[in-house]
Here is the input.
Amino acid sequence: MGVMKWEFTQSDLAQFAERGVSAAQVEGQLLQIAQGYPRTQVTSAAVVGGGVRQLTEDEINSASARYDEYRGKVAKFVPASGAATRMFKKQYEYLQGKCRDEDDHPINPFEDSVELYPFAKVLRDTLLERGEDLDALQRKGDYATILHALLDPGALNYGAKPKALIPFHLYADGSVRLAFEEHLSEAASYARCASGEAHLHFTLDGRFHAELLADFRRVQPQFEKEYGTRFVLHLSEQQHRTDTIAANPDNSPFRRPDGSLLFRPAGHGALLENLQNVDADLIFIKNIDNVLPDRLKGVTIRYKKALAGVLLSLRSQIAEYLETLFSPEAVDGAKCKEMIDFCRRELSYRFPVGMHEAPLDLQLRYLRKKLNRPLRVCGVVRNEGEPGGGPYWVRERDGSESLQIVETSQMDLTDSRVQEIVSKAHYFNPVDLVCSINDYRGARFNLSSFVNKNTGFVASKSVDGAPIKALELPGLWNGGMAEWNTVLVEVPGITFSPVKEMVDLLRAEHLTRE
Here is the structure.
């Protein structure tokens, strides 16, 4: 494919300047869209004894106790930038006349009584302000009016709001908690520093910062008293300079009706810079929609502490080895073998062919490079058919294999070998991470140095009915962390209970009563 050059107008250049990008960067994005990305070379799925650890009760207790003794600064990082539009996809389809039964009758888009949902009271009040009665509307099956009150701008506007601001749980005392508030409650139990502060960092569209801050100030006194914790809230926004240009199907730049170019958020991989700026020694990462009511948080809290304890133990040993590797004193062959055995046993290294026969100085150089990088311990759950990525072994350029979280969109699913590997995958990635992003001397790593830039992908989207190609950056916990040291630990399925669709709010685990 020849090098493509696009003629940009002065207006285009002004757009670039406003976003903090150059014409050369935009041209590079268009070229990447045209070329696509190489498929990730998965060699096998991660399994118990082959990349996945199962902790015994004693190991869980020991790791949790180790974390309880930790006195460093802790934070919880919650990617919450996206709107809840997809959560209400079926409800929007109902309004478009698409949700109908075999006899062409409209299907109840709530699947049950609206009263069962945690947003029922605020929805009822919103309808009353419009001169409508929720009960009467339900009796005559006028769900369209109900949905307009739920989704429309000027009403509750849930379709455009981030999930952080959507009611998730209705408690027995009549109180309702937003997804954001449940993360506060959860953090108080496992992400609290020795000082008694719980630091939470949410990435959020700047348009909703004020609304979320207002809710935080409303619940803060009650929550701090109830949980004995001082909450410190940090908000950031996905940087617009990380947005990528959209293209037409022929790979030319897509233009809006007014002639301007369209830039789109480039996925959660663009949040790497936000993570880089979190001021903490230990960082928990969890998705905004994966949170439970208080009655079911116990298992999550126990395993979060265990994951952190595992990380602390590994980090301590890694730091000791790095001090040795970077000391002026010579390291003998026996010590080198000890480090290699540790890397294979505890970090699941699969070394390149010839590693053991290489000269000692080359082995030590390899260990310095491999050990001196960010560390993450990832909880993985048994795969119950959920869509999304999972843990796999991936072939690297030097002949080694590494543990990665890989999305199916990164694989060549037309390859029968890959199909067989995916069919045998036992685990799913619930985005349940604890991370250390400081080096063995306490200095912050430059996280962009550990990204596999070949793991992005080109997605097919549409804008106002027009097809476009969208460039997604390497995912935050996929290619964005590809060169981190990665340890996988099996966690119980109850720790993964996301709300992907509105009706998920009616699942047993999201009800606040047994």
